Structure formats: C-alpha cells, structure tokens
Amino acid sequence: MPLGPAPSASPPDPSDEPWSPSQTELERRAFRQSRTKRSAVISAVSTIVVGGLVIWLVTRSAGWPRVQTTFFSWDKAVESFPAVLKGLWLNIRIMLICGVAIVVLGLTLAIMRTLRGPIFFPLRLFATVYVDLFRGLPLLLLLLLLGLGVPALRLPGVTISLAFWGGVAIVLSYSAYVAEVFRAGIESVHPSQRAASRALGLSHGQTLRHVVLPQAVRRVMPPLMNDFVSLQKDSGLIAVLGVTDAIQAARIETASDFNYTPYVVAGVLFICLTIPTARLTDHIAKKQGWHGAGGTL
Amino acid sequence: MSEPSTPTALLSVRGLRKSFGSNVVLNDVSLEIEPGQCVALIGASGSGKSTLLRCINLLEQVDDGVIELAGRDIADPRVDADQVRSRMGIVFQAYNLFPHLSVLDNVTLAPRRVHKVARAEAEKRSMTMLERVGLADKAKARPDDLSGGQQQRVAIARAMVNSPELLLLDEVTSALDPELVGEVLDLLRDLRAEGMTMILSTHEMGFARNVADSVCFLDAGRILEAGPPAEVLGDPQQERTRQFLSRLAS
Ligand SMILES: Nc1ncnc2c1ncn2[C@@H]1O[C@H](COP(=O)(O)OP(=O)(O)OP(=O)(O)O)[C@@H](O)[C@H]1O
Ligand SMILES: [Mg+2]
User: Fold this and answer.
1) In whole numbers, what is the pLDDT of chain A averaged over residues?
2) pTM over the 0.90 mark
3) Are B63 and A295 an interchain contact pair (Cβ–Cβ within 8 Å)?
4) Cβ distance B25 to B65 under 8 Å?
5) Domains, chain B, ordered by start
6) Which of A54, A224, B128, B221 is the most buried (most CB within 10 A)?
7) Chain B contact present for A1, CB below 8 A
8) In the 8-state DSSP scheme, what is residue A257?
9) Residues A220-259 pLDDT 10s
C-alpha cells in the first residue's frame, strides 16, 4: 500500500522550502554531465580525424602546388577582397529587399489558394497558374528573360536597372515556392482549430488571421528559413546579367591574371553570410521542438 | 527517501520531485504499489496527478527521487527508457491517438514495431482487445471519426495490448457519458480482477472507493494523505482533504 510522507499539520507551500538535490540525484547529474562531455570529445576527435584525412589527401595530390597558387593565393585574396566585398553588399541588399517582397507575395498567394467559395475562383485560378508558371521556370531563364528582355523594350518610365529586373525575377520564382510552403502550413492546421474559432464567432478572415496563420507560420518557419538561405546564394545568379555583385566582381578580378582566388574569396564570403541564418534556423526549430505541432499531453 | 522499498512492491516511488522552471509541481512524493493492486490518485485540477503518471512513465525527467520498478531505479539515466516503457501502458487524459493511423493500426503499432510480433498475430490480439472495449466494428476507422468516449476506449486497448506489468490511466473517464463511464469502469474492474496492477488518476470517488486498494490525495504537488479508501475517503485526517471531498459531495 502507498506510503505518503508523514502528514504535516498545515498544507505546506513547496516554494518556500529550500531544496537541495539528494545524493542519488547528484550522482545522476554527474553521470549525465560525463556523458555530455564524452560525446563532445568523441565528436571533436572524429572531426579532427576526418578533416585531417581530407587535408592530407588533397595536399598530397600531384596537382596540388598548381591549384594552391591559382586558387589559394593569399596575396591575390587580400588584393581582391575589397572589390568582392563591395559586390557582396549588392547581394545583401537584393536578398533583404527580395526577402520581404517574397514573404508578402508568397503569403498572399497562399491565402488566395486556400480561399473557398465560387466567387474566389478567379483568385484561386490566378494563384494556381502563377505558382505553376514561376515554379516551373528555371530561375536562370527567368533572369535572362527579364534582365535582358524588359530593358530592351525601352518602355517609357520603366527602369532599365539590371539589378532591379534581376531582383524581380528572383521574387517571381521564390514567391511561388514560398507560397507552397505557406499553403502546406495553413493546411496542416487541424480542422478542429478552425471549428473552435468559428464557434467563438470569429469570421473566416479573423480565424485565418488570429488562429490559423500564427500556427501555420510557426510550423513552416524552418523550411522558410531554408529557402532564405537558398535565396542568399541565388542572389549571386544576377551576375549573369553583368551586374557587379560579389561573383561578377570576383570574375573581373580573375580576368587580369587567370588567378581564381577571388572566386574562393566570394565563396567564403557567401558561406559567412549564410551561416548565421542556418544557426538561427536550428535555434528556431529547436525552440519549437514538438510543441510546434501543437496538441495536448 | 533512503529507506528500502518493500521487497514485493512492483513500483516504489520515493522522494520524487519535479518542477517546471520555478514551479514545483511534485514535491517529495512517495508511493508504493504491490503487484495486482490498484492505486487511485485524487486531487484538485493542477495538483500534479498527470505529471506524476508522466514521471513514472519516464516522459518527464525528474529533478530528484527514486522510481523503482521491480526493484530497479528507472529514473537513472543509465536505464533504457524505451525498454522500461514497453513494460508499462499509459492512457493519456487527451487520448493522444495517432490521427494518421486507423484504429487497428494504432493498437498494433507497438506490438509490431516494439515487440516484433508478426502482423497477423498482432492484429488478432488487437482485435480481441478492441472487442473487449466494444469497438471491433471501428477497427478500420480513423481516430478523428470517433467520438471522444470511443477514442478513449481505443487508447485503453492500445495501452493494454502488450499485457503491461503496470497500467497508468489518466482520468480515463473524464470525457465519457455516465453510461460509458460505467462501461469503462467495468472494464477496469475486470482488469483489476485479472490481477492487472494499475495507477489511475480520477475524479470518480465512487470508483476509487469500490475498486482501488488505496487512495492518494495529492494537493499542490504533495501526497497529503494516503491509505485504504475507507480511511482517506471515509474518515480523512487532514482538513484540506475534508474540504476537497466535501466540495465534491455538494
Ligand atoms: N509541460 C509543462 N510545462 C510547465 N508546466 C506544466 C507542464 N505540465 C504541467 N505543468 C504544470 O504542472 C501542474 C500540474 O499539472 P498536472 O497536469 O499534473 O495536473 P493534474 O493534477 O493532472 O490536473 P487535472 O486534474 O486538471 O488534469 C500545473 O500547475 C501545470 O500548470
Ligand atoms: Mg491531468
């Protein structure tokens, strides 16, 4: 039969009693800690071994000295760095402005696709065609069509800035992807949530705004961030239009002596740009954990 | 929490503490259960009943204390939690059926994947279990298409199908109409008669009185009073217990 603790006179308030972990618990904590340490050591050792092996294999190869001078020249790197960095600033601006435009457009398209009822048919149709079209077109093709085609039309009052039309192409393509991500999120919210909200008297729009979207957006945050990382890299594709972004700047730098180090510099800079986003994604995903999916325990 | 457990106890909890942040939900909780016994946890909403059951099932990491299952401390991080859990069954307050699986697949999942029972055998056993809870005709349905009470009974079948050594039931009757409450309680009574060891949290004092071997009154994370139902429910020693019971009665 169960044994309660010796009954105390008054109902005790747990919070005002000091508590110190028992010996058993301290020992458990020590064990957990030692296991954490052990895994840290194992991962460090395996990283060093694998990394060392790769470096050893590469530097041992016959062509390495030549590759080293043409791709990994320190002097060339220092020399080309300012120009590449200046180009990167354009990538950053494009990526930020496009990022905002993509989210707004993508969300709008997703909501259009989830509208029910016959009056909304034209909107649904538009959104569906838009997504099918721009998701299906290769981004590079879209860039060339818009970047080279539209300015050639010489439409009065329409900018001929290549960076602008490059950005438009990126927005068109990415918003189609992002719309699908949002739509998946919206549809993953359990119907009972809508029912509960409608039962409280909220309209369809209010339900979407206050109940469905907050859950949907939280749930699709990791894939969205993934698309954002992808956008950061793909902003480099506007180099094909001859706009001086980081990649184009690197190409210009290589032209004088066929030393390809500037490409490596640009690559490293792009990686530095995407790493913070990647870590942020991990952080968001971890914070949400399984609570992201909702549900009671 | 240092005194050894009764050697015959199936489960012995001693000095259990669990907090969420600064909120201490369970404080120095101790209880013991012999094989074949049924312990009822009673207490106000938020007193920590569900949390206690979740700690016993190792779904929460405890801050302190010992949880011994058949003489072995399962709160120890060296213990294989999956292996321990496969020896218990738990029915959640909110059922937690898997919405993407049919009723039958919900029940056969653990026998097939954890206990490696062949599909035919697992389905045969599961159907027997579903018949027992009166839902054999719903085997192919999705949980979402079932009523709350039906889902609750599927959850019981799912927990029971592996013949667990210990069954944890969290307010299994709270979502049911009086008729179904009677049915589920009859089912639990039968299980009890067959020698199933159970810990259940409940607001059904009548059931606690008739079926449980002992009742624990939880208040603000502590067991204030524990003992045979006749004592705890019939002649409570603590003012707080009396208060709780009289509110229920009125
Ligand atoms: N995951 C969690 N994070 C933070 N606090 C929690 C969590 N789970 C439970 N709690 C808190 O623990 C306390 C006890 O909760 P618990 O669910 O165990 O109560 P209960 O006795 O089962 O109540 P009820 O009869 O309403 O089911 C509550 O104050 C609750 O807010
Ligand atoms: Mg509960």
Assistant:
1) 86
2) no
3) no
4) no
5) 1-87+165-250 (3.40.50.300), 99-164 (no CATH)
6) B221
7) yes
8) T
9) 988 898 899 899 889 888 888 888 888 899 999 888 888 8
Is residue A287 predicted with pLDDT exceeding 80? no
Per-residue pLDDT, averaged over B6-35, amounts to 91
Percent of chain A with pLDDT over 70: 91
- CA proximity to A225, closest of A103, A88, A108, A109: A103
Q: Which of B24, B30, B77 sits opposite A32 (nearest CB)?
A: B77
Instruction: Return the structure tokens found at A216.
Output: 């949907």
Please check the confidence at residue A289 and state whether its pLDDT lies above 70. Answer: no
Half-sphere exposure of A51 (CA within 13 A, CB side): 6
Specify whether the CB–CB gap between B138 and B116 falls below 8 A: no
Q: Among B218, B224, B232, B241, pick the best mutation site for testing chain A contact (most A Cβ within 10 A).
A: B224
Confidence of residue A9 (pLDDT cuts 50, 70, 90): very low
Over range B43-58, report the average pLDDT: 93
A174: nearest Cα among A233, A219, A215: A233
- Decide if A2 and B214 are in contact by the 8 Å CB cutoff: yes
Task: Give the DSSP letter string of chain B.
Answer: --SPPPTT-SEEEEEEEEEETTEEEEEEEEEEE-TT-EEEEEE-TTSSHHHHHHHHTTSS--SEEEEEETTEETTSTTS-HHHHHTTEEEEBTTB---TTS-HHHHHHHHHHHTS---HHHHHHHHHHHHHHTT-GGGTTS-GGGS-HHHHHHHHHHHHHTT--SEEEEESTTTTS-HHHHHHHHHHHHHHHHTT-EEEEE-S-HHHHHHH-SEEEEEETTEEEEEE-HIIIIIS--SHHHHHHHHHHH-
- Token pair 């009523």 in the structure block, residue: B147
Residue where the block lists tokens 């206050």: A210
Strand partners, B200: B40, B169
B42 CA → ligand 1 middle, Å: 14
Q: Which residues contact A85 (CB under 8 A, 6 or more apart)?
A: A246, A269
Token duo for residue A89: 């600033």
